[in-house]
Amino acid sequence: MMIGLLSFILGWQYLRFYVFKLLPVLIFWAMMIGLLSFILGRQYLGFGYSSGFGSGFLQPGWLDGSNP
Asked: Which residues cross the membrane (predicted)?
């Protein structure tokens, strides 16, 4: 019991050290991926709207399949 508690505390300190070291990197990469997907998604939506594919996208008929 004591050994498990000790290893848990040591592991938590180790994990906390790694989390605090890696958290800014993870946040940075998440922001970069989000920004990239946002830009690509906007370009894709813009292409759809300009080609007429997304012209009925926001109309209610699109939901029930009557307006493909």
From this structure: 20-40
Rounded Cα gap, residues 40 and 34, in angstroms: 10
Domain assignment of residue 65, yes or no: no
Write down the H helix ranges in 1-68.
2-51
What's the domain range around 34?
Answer: 21-45
Q: State the pTM of this model.
A: 0.37
Tell me what pLDDT residue 68 has: 47
Q: What is the end-to-end Cα distance of the chain in Å, rounded?
A: 63
Assess whether pLDDT exceeds 70 at residue 25: yes
38: three-class secondary structure by DSSP: helix
